[in-house]
Structure formats: structure tokens, C-alpha cells
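Good morning,

Attaching, inline, the C-alpha cells for the sequence recovery test we're adding to the shared suite. The designed sequence is right after.
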């Protein structure tokens, strides 16, 4: 089941994210986050964007969220995307389920474009993005230093609509409103 995140889910998501910081290059953060800092990050993002979790039986398997791509107003129709699967749960299709759900929410909320920043060499993330129609739209070589080496990042983008008409403001003022106009409710 995919649903909106609840406070009871924060700890698992925090633990996974710190695991990815400590053991991988998929995030450019280099020091573990304190729980209160991660909680504040979730709650700040949730004020305008959806943050979802995938739960199977009683266990969480991963999470995904949208966030601002850039704070300047002209970027309001573009959002950033992040997906994390529990470290021991990769290659079970959870990433695809989360990607499907978060892209559906982005489209329902009126975004035109979704952008993901992927560390070069993260083939699993590149593959899933490409399978969902994302295209590599930019590359910054050796733009980060982590775990003793220089790493590049690639920007992957997906257009959700090809409209060239003036667009209404995205529906991101209350991402948890079940009755939000245009949004199909996600399981609570």
C-alpha cells in the first residue's frame, strides 16, 4: 500500500537516509543527519509537496517525495523528485511502485516537469528513470567529492504535459488534502 507519510514513519526513513549517506554516493550529504533535522526536513517539504511511503504488511519498504526544484517563482511548475528504498529491499519493484505513485501525484498537482539529480554511476536510478520516460538533460562532471573521489551528477527530466498555454498555479498548497480539486486521494 502506498500512503502519505505519518509521524510514526519518520524514524525508518531517517535511518535509511543515514544509511545511504554513510554507505553510498547516491546522496551528496556526507555527514549523518540528526533525527530532529530530518523530521524538520520532512515537515517543511510536507507543507507544499507530497511525501509518500510504501508499506507492505506492517513494514515500510521505501519513500518518495517531491520538493522545490528551485525557489524562484518561475520554477513553480517544475518539481524535484527523490526516491529511497530500504537498503535491504532493492530489486523488488518497490522503486517502480513509488515512482508511479509520485509521478501521478505530480501530474495531478499540475506540474509540467519533474527533475531528478542522479550521481553518475548509479545505474539502478538511471535505469528506473529512463524506464519512466525521463531523459538525461544535463551533466556536471566532478561536481562533488565524497568517499575519497570526485563524482559527477546528471539531471534527468520528464515532461508531464506538453502544453505551451498559460498554466494555473500548481495545486501544492495542501498536499495532504484528500478533497483537493484534481487530486485522486491516496490511501490514508
Amino acid at each position: 500500500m502506498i500512503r502519505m507519510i505519518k509521524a510514526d514513519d519518520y524514524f525508518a526513513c531517517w535511518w535509511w537516509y543515514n544509511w545511504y549517506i554513510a554507505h553510498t554516493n547516491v546522496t551528496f550529504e556526507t555527514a549523518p543527519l540528526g533525527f530532529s533535522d530530518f523530521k524538520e526536513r520532512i515537515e517543511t517539504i510536507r507543507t507544499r509537496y507530497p511525501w509518500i511511503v510504501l508499506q507492505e504488511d506492517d513494514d515500510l519498504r521505501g519513500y518518495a517525495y517531491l520538493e522545490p526544484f528551485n525557489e524562484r517563482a518561475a520554477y513553480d511548475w517544475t518539481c524535484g523528485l527523490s526516491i529511497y528504498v530500504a537498503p535491504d529491499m532493492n530489486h523488488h519493484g518497490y522503486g517502480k511502485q513509488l515512482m508511479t505513485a509520485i509521478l501521478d501525484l505530480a501530474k495531478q498537482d499540475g506540474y509540467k516537469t519533474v527533475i531528478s539529480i542522479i550521481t553518475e554511476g548509479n545505474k539502478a536510478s538511471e535505469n528506473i528513470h529512463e524506464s519512466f520516460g525521463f531523459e538525461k538533460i544535463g551533466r556536471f562532471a566532478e561536481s562533488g567529492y565524497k568517499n575519497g573521489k570526485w563524482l559527477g551528477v546528471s539531471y534527468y527530466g520528464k515532461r508531464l504535459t506538453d502544453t505551451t498555454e498559460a498554466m494555473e498555479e500548481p495545486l501544492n498548497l495542501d498536499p495532504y488534502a484528500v478533497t483537493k480539486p484534481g487530486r485522486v486521494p491516496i490511501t490514508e
